[in-house]
Amino acid sequence: MTTIRQRRVGKGTEAAEDQPSEETNVKPDGKIPSDPAGGKVWNILSITFGGIVAISLGLLTSVYVATLHENDLWFSNIKEVEREISFRTECGLYYSYYKQMIQAASIQQGLHGLVYDNKTESVRTINILERMNVYQEVFLSILYRILPIQQYLEPVYFYIYTLFGLQAVYVIALYVTSWLLSGTWLSGLLAACWYITNRVDTTRVEFTIPLRENWALPFFAVQIAAITYLLRTHLQPVQERLTLTAVFIATFLFSLTWQFNQFMMLIQALALFILDCLDMLPTAKVTWLYVIQISGLLLVCVLQFFNSMILGSLLISFNVSVLIARTIQKNLKKGGLLNRLGKLILHLLLVLCLTLLINKFIKKILNLESDEHIFKFLKAKFGFGATRDFDANLYLCEEAFGLLPLNTFSRLSSTLLFYAYGFVLFLLTVAAVIVAFRNLSGSNEVQLKEKMEEYTVTLKPDAAYSLVHTVLFGCLALSTMRMKYLWTSHMCVFASFGLCSTEVWKLLLKCLHLYTSQRTQVIKYSVPIITLLYISFKFWPGIMDELSELREFYDPDTVELMNWIKSNTPNTAVFAGSMQLLAGVKLCTGRTLTNHPHYEDKNLRERTKQIYQIYAKRSPGDVYGILRSFGTDYVILEDSICYERRHSRGCRLRDLLDVANGHIMDGLGENEPDLKPSLYPRFCEEIKKNLPSYTMHFTRVFQNKTFHVYKLGKHK
């Protein structure tokens, strides 16, 4: 087991930068302010200073997470094998392809090795560039090879510093989004500070560096910032084209770097669909965003050698269905309230039916089953029937795929983030309901525009998008803890924008009959400043203590295992074991694997279930036959899995295997009535007794406190 142990000794005001509004640009008598030159200078100074603050905070965040990583592992002092072991589970698998490209004789040979890979899955040749999102590793390895930095920077540091550098991009994008929404860079400052002080819930980059989301989320944040700017009114054609280009590039990079991109963008497409139906966004811009999503995903599909999982994604089916349905129902936004509600219900049903039909048709044509485990998991998670499916239960039993823990809200509340978020969410939701009802009720658009000044409740398109975005991703985070990072980062943006927004405070003060322009401006700046002071005084000492705490990586058992494999097994040896451990075996030793953690392939899932019979109640002959069918030379057994206590009964890996095999689970507790006792004891326990029925197939060649390695006999 890996542990982290203590390191041994010796080893000004900003009113002019608000978004243009009637109050800031027009005097009460209707005349334009008399000093436009002074206002422009002040705006330039404010934007320059705000930009400097954004870049500074981004760079500070990068240094902060890099320092935490170094202090946690003493990364600069540990051996290379220990550095590689620190890249756990799928992180190690992804990094292994970067290492493979670096060590290849040439870039061409490195690419050929990825396209025709026969070491990731034994007795199979797979295309890594098709199956996995590793273009970032390819690009980074090529960049490292062609830049004159090899003498000054090790490959691993070039890799991790790039990821930490992307955190700067992430924070700057969050800062800019909040600034665009509120009109003041003070909002961006507050968003960035909340992101840093809530680091436990906003990012995990410092201990899961190569994880796909750490590559993708900065580009997603850039995309959201670009969409926020795009949804502003009165953009010049050139500005609109440039912004659409930025949205496309960010969407493409986000899609290229994460296999779950289609599900995140589907939620984004749902937000656009809802707002378009409620007439809260310009239809032309929404259409462009649908097209950008489709084109970005299709371009990634081409780069991934026409990956069928992308073609069969719900996102493409949904976006195409919306565009078709809109063509069929041309008068969707005309008529009275009841008329429009009826049309919307028909529109919703039409889009839903078209989406399901198109998706079913594509999957039938492509014979696509790569993502079926996700839908099985969702079906079981939301109570649409219990399942004995091994893959679905494997996800259900992982804490990361469970509900968001309640202590998350107490942590977010300690920084005042959750309180501010709830306050802004409530006010803007009320405003959105009023605006949506007004839009659906209005039959004459011209009359609506003429009467707009009479309404005290308005909601800008960018704020409306941000509201629905945060609600939908909030629902995702509440249902699946692993996805909370998509929500909490935007929560920082949304809460800071609300506290610095003229519209939010104006709405509240008018409801309380306390509104004046001066009072709104005072509150708009004083509340975020007080919040920033509170955060600084409360959390600055803790951050300093965190940065001064020194620990080191310590996992001698795994280090011993990897060194033994490199020294005592041939380079062509095939290893079987748990997905998580085998990713490290490939990275540290370069040996061939039977299975690995990248689970988005049906054949691999079936293969993994078969390999995991080493922890089930199966006969030695059965297990030997299964392992040999995958060309296995060595099998690694882990005591932490065989005698697992981390999960409760029913969620231990051995329990999942027993239920899937129709066997009664170990230990006290209930079993389903049709489960039966196994005819054989548990393989991982019984093999250690060195009985003849086991030693005729398996010979123990290595063991320590954690791992047991057995070599398979070559007899038929």
From TrEMBL:
| Organism annotation | Oriolus oriolus
Entry's CDD domains?
A: Dpy19L3 (cd20181)
- Per the UniProt record, which residue ranges are transmembrane? 41-66, 179-197, 217-235, 242-260, 266-284, 296-324, 344-362, 416-437, 463-481
Chief place where the protein resides: membrane
Q: How does it sit in the membrane?
A: Multi-pass membrane protein
Q: Give a single Pfam family match.
A: Dpy19
The protein here is known as: D19L3 mannosyltransferase
Q: Where is this region: Disordered?
A: 1-34
Residues annotated as signal peptide: none
The record's keywords, sorted A to Z, are: Glycosyltransferase, Membrane, Transferase, Transmembrane, Transmembrane helix
Family, similarity comment: Belongs to the dpy-19 family.
Which GO terms of the cellular component aspect does the record hold? nuclear inner membrane
InterPro entries from the entry? Dpy-19/Dpy-19-like, Dpy19L3
Name the Gene Ontology molecular function terms of this record.
mannosyltransferase activity
Compartments annotated for it: namely: Membrane
Biased-composition ranges for Basic residues?
A: 1-10
